[in-house]
Amino acid sequence: MVIVFFSKNEKMALEIEKSLNEKVYLDFEFVFSKDPDETLTFLEYIMPQFAIFDLDDFEFSSPENFQKIASDPWLGNTGIFGIKDDKTLPVQVDYPFFYIFTPFEITTQMPRILSVLMKNENLLFRTGIIQDIGNKGVFVIQSDIEDVKAYAELIASNLCNRGLIQTAKKYAIIFALNELLINAIEHGNCEITAEEKKTWLAEDKKIIDLVELKKQNPKIASRIVTLEYELLETKVQITITDKGKGFDFIHYLNNDIQNITGYSGRGILMTKCFIDAIYYREPGNQVTIEVSYDESNIKLPLGLEEHKILELSVGEVLFQKGDKSDGLYFIVRGEFEAWIDGKLVSILDSSDVFIGEMAFLLRHRRTATVKAKTASQVIFIGAKDWIDTIRKYPLYGVYLSRILARKLNNTSITVSSLKQI
Question: Which residue of 26, 167, 244, 350 pairs with 188 in a disulfide if CB–CB is 3.0 to 4.6 A?
Fold first, then answer.
């Protein structure tokens, strides 16, 4: 995994590399690129997973540069970050940075956010062939407040980049998740009372220090927060569960924000303003929010926008074992079952990207019967269309190669494990 920093600031480059080496416990290669003329070439040929730009250096952060990056499908799955003293965007730059750090955050937020994203590298950043976090799943979060923003950004950005929500709703979800996850850590896992928090803040102390103080208790330090998500037909449902004792959530949900004078309860009521539904389960250590999708067109990969979307109902067969393989299917949404000789062998969803790519590339007949497990949507890409798409967007050929390599690697690991049994 490659992380590149574009800047002439050697001191900052050393600081970033040191911070990542000390706090990111995953394999990666850090590259410092200080030649503005080679920026686009580096991105196009090295294809790093993450690119960090020095936004205080105009040679690297000109609107022209970012416009070229945004319009180049080859760069569609590189996560673009920025570093700037005041976090504001450069003049006239309208570009979807995943996050903008201040120099101070190089040693705090940067390694944490990159760690979360590196563990979930199948997150879709902007364009290209869509591979995402799937239709449902669970994140296990330690009681670290600094990790919260990364998970909130991960969920919200994925929904936005899939075309399910618009930018305004993206920031609403980020706000809601930030509030609820922090509540789960502070008041749930760490058992910080409203009065205790008020007294601590009144002494001009940081709440993160109080959390760390509480975590000196081994029982509290071992507690986790789970973040579960599921993409339903018309909405996303997100559930947050902590290990605390719960609280009188009915009192706060029924309160009026104008009646609140302190810190306690304000976040819950503000969250209600940004989402469609919120409900707690007894005793109050589990909360679920729902956010409806925006009325918008489904976001499709470049080159596939004009292809017809095929709708499948539950149980409908996409193709049968033995059928001629004259193309592959791109999964827009939904889940599929693969059956061989009456046996269910796998479940596929949008994180698998394609269905039937192996038989198509090898010119074999279909090796399994695939049918919709849920109401689903796919795009059929015939041989000619696929070749024309690759010619126009070479990234897709490389991307398909990576998908196949990953599947082969997973198969090798499984076979190796079986041999050891």
Answer: 244
Q: Which residues pair with 228 in a beta bridge?
A: 138, 239
pTM over 0.70: no
Is residue 115 a contact partner of residue 123, using CB atoms and an 8 Å limit?
A: no
What CATH number does the domain located at 309-394 have?
Answer: 2.60.120.10
Taking the mean position of all CA atoms in its chain, how far away is CA 110?
16
Q: Count other Cβ atoms within 10 Å, centred on residue 364.
A: 11
125 close to 156: Cβ distance less than 8 angstroms = no
Alpha-carbon span 211 to 223, nearest angstrom: 12
Among 181-185, 346-350, 406-410, name the one with the lowest average pLDDT.
Answer: 406-410
Domain boundaries defined on the chain: 1-120, 132-297, 309-394
Over the stretch 251-300, which tens digit does the pLDDT of each residue have? 777 766 555 555 566 677 778 888 899 999 999 999 999 999 887 656 67
Round the CA-based radius of gyration of the chain to a whole number and report it. 23
CATH of segment(s) 1-120: 3.40.50.2300
pLDDT, one tens digit per residue, over 157-209 is 778 767 788 878 888 899 999 999 999 999 999 999 988 988 998 899 988 99
Q: Determine how many CB atoms are found less than 10 A away from the CB of residue 415.
A: 9
Distances in Å between the Cα of 365 and the Cα atoms of 163, 173, 222, 360 are 34, 44, 51, 8
Tell me which fold the domain 132-297 belongs to.
Heat Shock Protein 90 (3.30.565)
